[in-house]
């Protein structure tokens, strides 16, 4: 017996991500997933082992303490406001909203009502990126110069209301600001529409952070190769995080003097040791939801992705799309 009150949890949205949330919520100690909402076709979800309702109001009336929102981005504002006004703590899947105005409205509603709200930027909870951030904070790369992310793979048929900037690049925007502990200053981007959809399916972006770090994001839904890689280069070497395998590798700048004239004539760094760190690898979604539950209990809140963080990410995504439309560099603040 833990002696703690069991928290009553709700879930809105039973798509691919919603079903993962249901699985993890049902495995957490002292948490009961009492009901879910999926207005599209509830009878198709019998395996959820939970009552499926039609509306957010019905879920609120069940008396839940917390709720996860895993619905299409365009619905986040209305659902978020309803939960905030009801005083229910919420984790809203990324991106926080379809535009910065809606994201700000959500953030203000939770603040006004004194309710915990956070955003499901799950990459922050990837073991490789968590260890990278810790090591960067300890100065293991010295001064950081550049962050490069590559996020590509086949088109996910479940995404219908957003392009790669809002759906995929927001992962990289958030994780870059988080691991470097610096906001974006300006961005420039180019997009392409190759699959016949209304939304962009490819973006190439460069930017500068407030602390001077240069960033590059390459994102697409057009590749048969699925890739999720973040490379951070600094004065002492580089870190490479693969968030598919949760591996973190360190490539150290060499210290040996080159004997071969052709190599010695290059006045950059030389190849040094390579280390693949052995790190614990808990499931990121388990870590994310455990932290959310702890915050609702009043035990921990600092590790949450705040609604303000989510708003900042949406603003940078809007700046990327503005740059792609105008062909100009856009201030991101």
Automatic annotation (TrEMBL):
<dbReference type="InterPro" id="IPR055170">
    <property type="entry name" value="GFO_IDH_MocA-like_dom"/>
</dbReference>
<dbReference type="Pfam" id="PF01408">
    <property type="entry name" value="GFO_IDH_MocA"/>
</dbReference>
<feature type="domain" description="GFO/IDH/MocA-like oxidoreductase">
    <location>
        <begin position="130"/>
        <end position="239"/>
    </location>
</feature>
<dbReference type="InterPro" id="IPR036291">
    <property type="entry name" value="NAD(P)-bd_dom_sf"/>
</dbReference>
<protein>
    <submittedName>
        <fullName>Gfo/Idh/MocA family protein</fullName>
    </submittedName>
</protein>
<dbReference type="InterPro" id="IPR000683">
    <property type="entry name" value="Gfo/Idh/MocA-like_OxRdtase_N"/>
</dbReference>
<dbReference type="Pfam" id="PF22725">
    <property type="entry name" value="GFO_IDH_MocA_C3"/>
</dbReference>
<feature type="domain" description="Gfo/Idh/MocA-like oxidoreductase N-terminal">
    <location>
        <begin position="8"/>
        <end position="121"/>
    </location>
</feature>
<dbReference type="InterPro" id="IPR051450">
    <property type="entry name" value="Gfo/Idh/MocA_Oxidoreductases"/>
</dbReference>
